[in-house]
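Dear Dr. H.,

I hope your travels went smoothly. While you were away I took the liberty of generating a structure for the chain from your last submission, since the lab meeting agenda had it listed for discussion. I wanted you to have the full record in hand beforehand rather than looking at slides cold. The sequence, exactly as received, is reproduced here:
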Amino acid sequence: MRVFAFAIAALATLAATSARPDNAAPNPPPPEQQAAQTPPKKDPHDPNEVICRRVEELGTRLGGEKVCMTRAQWDDEAWDNKHAMDDAKHHTLDVRGN
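The corresponding predicted structure, in token form, is as follows:
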């Protein structure tokens, strides 16, 4: 009998809490408010976006510095570094003296 009474009390509590208006789903805002609330989507490849990176200094465990440039500037620097390495590979000096 106790189990039955406990089950009835639990069901009554569950029904009362699920019927409360504070558990109800909120009404969605009108479309004009939704448009104002959603932030504009960022272009993931915006060339004018400023990106900051920590650049470590060779030969030391200390320091390094924070460098901020636009995405286009970082891309230009990467392109310059890649081509400098390619040039160094293809134009090596012959150290054997031949």
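Two observations you may find useful: Residues 50-90 form one domain. The longest strand covers residues 50-55.

With kind regards,
E. W.
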